[in-house]
Write a structure and sequence with these properties.
The chain is of the alpha+beta class. The protein has 22 helices and 16 strands. The chain has a domain of 191 residues: Biosynthetic peptidoglycan transglycosylase-like (Penicillin binding protein transpeptidase fold), CATH 1.10.3810. It has a 5-stranded mixed β-sheet, with helices on one face. Strand 1 and strand 2 form a beta hairpin. The longest helix has 43 residues. The relative contact order is 0.09.
Length: 619
């Protein structure tokens, strides 16, 4: 039968594999060219087919292997709450347990969770949850393409079921083998439980930051309402928090939480689950958070700090599974002494005649704590270990951890660092004369800055050391000019004060930092010029006995040992004849160095002192 001549109108497009086949072409010349290449094409075709068969066999073998291994896991663990995480002091004595591990959660069925949250969760984490059987192969393909385009890992392909498997069984290592096991387990989970059960187990187990596990506790903890009543705005925020509970939760950073909320709302719009108008309205909705004095407590300032720090060392699923043993650096005896001493001293201040503020004894339970507060931090000069951490007078009444979180103006406690830089970089000697006379400096576009001394006097020339011993402001400003403001700011960055103002006012400590930071900085003098990284957690053990984290002492030299010695010698005289003689009058006679610091109207009052072994900061 004669072959009909094809026309361009009737001819279809070639298939995706047309170039590999031996189909007839429109010209003999092209046929001739293709014929010459056909052996090579057949060779490559065989390679492709062989590769496909080998890959298929490997996949089948892997499926059988990991499927068999997955049978060893008890899926009933998915129904069970995690074990408690226990916290120990430096001597192995139990301090307590971290709330949230098997305690701070309430399981609820899917029917008691807001549909807004379920939609937001699925849009964010697993949009094809109700279509796949544990593994979303379309999601895998999308992730591969997205990551290839980005030149790195930018998008994951773990389904909710895979995440549930990982979180339940604590699969910690980042490896291809772990992924294969997740796949095998997720398929087994899908066979044993319904989709709604899997969704409920996931929502009740996942960590939302701030010690809150499960959607019900997260809704109550952040927004003071049950999960069933979550709004679209609140739901989108919580769904976004899951991938970064430490950095994204609204207690830690509302700005970060709002950013991730916006991303989730955009996904909901893309999935046609909400309109663009609804997304805009949700972004603009005011988020009302639980007040700080009503937030869930973890028992003490130390335990709270441990819990907050866990996210810096471990993946969220390891924290969530619980059963950890956390060994801290806390010296229990020193901790108790610090707590009692702080409260006793503040109570004595409240009893002074004419004290203008409400005392702690008048505090009513459940009300805002408006009484006098303080914080204490003690650090081991040899290692940087935090031996005592007091964040306030009563954790139950005010769980805000002032030792770690409160940024307060440091005042004169920063002056020793200005002098140290002047000794190191400016060539200043303690005996060199510095003027205590009035000084006026231009610090901006306004009127010149004219610092004054606390006694209102200007007393002429004095040795530089005397300016630090007696905390003379005008002398310290001049010493700062000798040191060089850029040099002072550079040291401040190294000591973790952050970016401080590019202005002479820094010589008087006109910037803010935390008690932990200033105490760690002072320990540099005792450590011969080496600044050691402060740490509270010594090591973390998994429930299977393996070590998940072991602290390594880290430090860096920031100025010569000679500068440390010069500065410490002057600061020793601060206790003997300067602004901190109250320590000697109170009976403390051991060798020590330190410095006081106050801000305008005594809003902040500091003392940071050290011996050769321990540095303690009191705010």
């Amino acid at each position: 039968m004669a072959r009909k001549k094809s026309s361009s109108r009737g001819r279809g497009k070639p298939g995706p594999f047309a170039s590999l086949g031996g189909g007839k072409s429109r010209s003999s010349k092209r046929r001739k060219g293709k014929g010459k290449k056909s052996p090579l094409r057949r060779f490559f075709r065989k390679i492709l087919v062989t590769g496909f068969v080998v890959a298929l066999l490997v996949a089948l073998a892997g499926s059988f292997y990991y499927g068999a291994r997955a049978m060893r896991f008890d899926l009933e663990e998915i129904r069970e709450a995690p074990q408690r995480t226990l916290v120990y002091d430096r001597d192995g004595k139990l301090l307590g347990h971290v709330a949230g591990h098997g305690e701070n959660r309430v399981a609820v069925p899917v029917s008691q969770v807001s549909p807004h949250f379920i939609q937001a969760l699925l849009a964010r984490e697993d949009s094809r949850f109700y279509q796949h059987h544990g593994v979303d192969f379309l999601g895998v393909a999308r992730a591969v393409v997205a990551n290839l385009r980005a030149g790195g890992t930018r998008q994951g392909a773990s389904t909710l079921t895979m995440q549930l498997a990982r979180n339940t069984f604590g699969m910690r290592e980042m490896s291809l083998q772990r992924k294969f096991m997740e796949v095998a387990l997720s398929q087994r989970i899908e066979r044993q439980f319904t989709k709604d059960e899997i969704l409920a187990y996931y929502m009740n187990r996942v960590y939302f930051g701030s010690g809150l596990y499960g959607i019900e506790r997260a809704a109550q903890g952040y927004f003071m309402k049950p999960a069933a009543d979550l709004t679209l705005a609140e739901s989108a925020m919580l769904a976004g928090v899951i991938r970064g509970p430490s950095l994204l939760n609204p207690f830690r950073s509302m700005e970060n939480a709002k950013d991730i909320q916006g991303e989730v709302l955009e996904r909901l719009v893309d999935a046609d689950l909400i309109t663009a108008t609804e997304a805009t309205e949700a972004k603009g909705q005011k988020i009302v958070l639980r007040p700080p004095n009503q937030r869930f407590a973890t028992g003490s300032y130390t335990l709270q700090a441990v819990f907050d720090l866990l996210a810096d060392y471990l993946e969220p699923h390891l924290i969530e599974t619980g059963g950890l043993k956390i060994h801290t650096t806390v010296d229990t005896a020193l901790q108790k002494t610090a707590e009692e001493a702080l409260d006793a001293h503040l109570t004595s201040i409240e009893k002074r005649p004419g004290y203008p503020h409400p005392p702690r004894r008048a505090h009513q339970k459940g009300k805002d704590t408006r009484y006098l507060q303080g914080a204490v931090v003690s650090i081991d000069n040899r290692t940087g270990a935090i031996l005592a951490l007091v964040g306030g007078r009563d954790f139950g009444e005010s769980p805000y951890n002032r030792a770690y979180r409160a940024r307060r103006q440091v005042g004169s406690t920063f002056k020793p660092f200005v002098y140290a830089v002047a000794f190191d970089r400016g060539g200043l000697l303690p005996g060199a004369f510095i003027s205590d006379d009035a000084i006026r400096l231009q610090t901006g576009g306004g009127a010149p800055w004219a610092p004054r001394n606390s006694d209102g006097q200007f007393t002429g020339l004095h040795p530089a050391a005397l300016g630090l011993i007696r905390s003379r402001n005008t002398m310290s400003v001049r010493v700062g000019l000798v040191a060089g403001l850029d040099n002072v700011r550079s040291l401040a960055r190294v000591l973790k004060f952050g970016e401080i103002p590019a202005s002479p006012v820094i010589s008087l400590g006109a910037f803010e930092t935390t008690p932990v930071t200033i105490t760690s900085a002072y320990s540099t003098f005792a450590a011969k010029g080496v600044n050691l990284m402060p740490y509270l957690i010594e090591r973390i053990e998994h429930q299977d006995g393996s070590i998940l984290y072991q602290n390594q002492v880290r430090g860096r030299p920031v100025f010569p040992e000679s500068v440390s010695w010069l500065t410490s010698d002057i600061l020793a005289k601060v206790l003997d004849e300067g602004t901190a003689t109250a320590a000697r009058k109170a009976g403390y006679q051991a060798p020590a160095s330190g410095k006081t610091g106050t801000t305008n109207n005594y809003v902040d009052a500091w003392f940071v002192g050290y011996t050769d072994k321990v540095t303690t900061g009191v705010w």
